[in-house]
Amino acid sequence: MRVAIVTGASSGIGFGCAKKLVDDGIAVLGTGRDAERLAGLAAETDPDRIATVAVDLTEDDAPQRVIDAALDRWGRVDFLINNAGVGSPQPLHETDDDTLDHFLDVMLRAPFRLARDVLPHLRAGSAIVNVTSTFAVVGGLRGGAYSAAKGGLTALSTHIACQYGAQGIRCNAVAPGVTVTPMVEHRLDDPRFRKINTEMTPYPRLGRVEDIANTVAFLCSDAGAFINGQTIVVDGGWSSTKYLSDFALDAEWVPR
Ligand code: NAP
Asked: Per its UniProt entry, which superkingdom is the organism in (predicted)?
């Protein structure tokens, strides 16, 4: 049985990825900080194919604890899904050093260290998937430290693809657009946030956790076996078009 580590599995996209991979027959070691929500994941999932560990990924010993938990339970690791993240960044000029360090710690340093430390356990046919963001693909209003971390993670993905591809180890990024999870749910009440997302997305709905989980699972499947060093953007066309909805086109122009 193949084994995946999924970080940020206590919520949102990571929770959905863990469930999808288990449904596809892969055993999952899911991580998060909230032990109660991780127990909720375990309760909803085939007990033979799920294990969890509550750990803050910014701690120095986190990668070892996570990898050891997978090896102790199943003796192997085939996939690493670096998904854990934090949202609601501020623009560059409002970002203090503590915030910068925290965003980089969670979304660049932790995935870097996990990937580095899991590498010796990966074999040909293994894969790493880094969950980045459309904010690593196009400019993002208020992106700040978030954009910086996700951009770094994108570059790390192509490095891993290049460096370890010859060993049959692939690495790709999945870049979600706005996806309804606890990270962004509260922001959907803000009409400005809805405007720059729903009114600018040609496909007529917001992203769902399943959209991202299915893409991650595809990259871990035999069907994705020749995809290496790519970013797959899953955003309904938001980042690749200059779409404006009829509503936005007809909206009354308000001079500033
Ligand atoms: P979410 O529901 O808020 O989940 C975030 C996950 O990351 C939680 O499981 C959380 O665990 C974990 N996490 C955060 N800080 C951590 C830390 N220090 N140590 C360990 N785990 C930590 O967010 P989501 O929307 O599913 O986001 C998942 C990924 O998708 C993120 O990388 C995010 O940047 C990316 N993304 C999301 C969207 C979107 O619209 N939702 C768009 C683009 C990209 P605990 O809560 O247990 O601490």
From this structure: Bacteria
